[in-house]
Amino acid sequence: MSLDFAATTPLTATEEARRQIEICNACRYCEGFCSVFPAMTRSKAFADGDLTHLSNLCHNCRGCHYACQYTAPHEFDLNIPAALAEVRQDSWERLARPQALARMFHERGVAMAGLLVVALTLFFALIAATRPTGGEGFYAYMAHNMMIAIFIPAFVAPLALIGLSLRDYWREVGGGRVRLRHLAKASDMAGRMKNLNGGHGDGCNFEDGDRFSQKRRIAHQLMMWGFLACFAATSSGTILHYVFGWYAPYPLWAPPKLLGVPGGIAMVAGAIGLAALKLRADPDLGARRVWGGEMAFIVLLGAVAATGLALYAATGTGAVGPLLAVHLATVMTLFLLMPFSKMIHGFFRFTALVAEAGKLEKTR
């Protein structure tokens, strides 16, 4: 283990993470905090792929930093949350296609998302101005077939790009054969946000180093489960339309509304919670250069849900047309930016949990 702090050549993000992880591996005080530390103890030397794997297991809860005795002003100057955040961010950008777009969004996310929402709002407003000859509800402003023709490619193409990124990630971290039990364990970990409980069940220190809190875990769960409920609402509407011939608009008791309305409310609450916590948290314990992109992603998710709820509330009024254009614009912006925004973190972290389940099984 090299502890040459006199070197004048700046270390790369990967080299700095390796230096810090090697010190952590010698100490092991934080072994029970999250999945990173048990995974770290399997190795004495860390290849680049090992660091990529550890960084994507990290949920940036920051508990290890506040518990560490080797943070500044100690000469070791450890800041594991920031070191892993930089490697994690680099993996998302490096494995994205195209890389330049990913770097641009993460550093200028607010401007990019805002401009795209405005441009797409104008686009959908122009389409709505043509007013189809028939249709009820939303379809009175945009024909169903046109909506499908626009959104299917905008959803499938980004998913294909994400699939290519995850394939490269799997190869880089040395992921083995996937078993059903690995997926089940990863799903359980992700669903309960286990890596945000601080290892002891009291929560993490994300926004306050002196106090444990479940706020970030709850906000993440509201956002995740709310998003999945909204996705299920859209999926159920598709099934009702094509399989049962039951066309929108749907009553409140129908599956699309039973899932979509609570899901939208949960997403808005989650976005408010995540944004508030991020504003209070120390930016030096994350990847500071992408703070704006991360906040843009939170705001975009909240806007998707809020505009959807507003659109439902405006049913039967003259506000439906303008609100529909804004809502469709925010949804398409979210879809188009999926491979480049922080939306990618859900895919990478789940994949890391699957890989870790397999690696852990091999050591037993």
Automatic annotation (TrEMBL):
Transmembrane stretches, start-end: 109-129, 141-162, 222-247, 259-279, 291-313, 319-340
InterPro entries: Citrate_utilization_prot_B (IPR012830), NarG-like_sf (IPR036197)
Keyword Transmembrane helix set for record: yes
UniProtKB keywords: Membrane, Transmembrane, Transmembrane helix
Record bears the keyword Membrane: yes
NCBIfam families: CitB
Protein name: Tricarballylate utilization 4Fe-4S protein TcuB
Organism from which the protein derives: Paracoccus haeundaensis
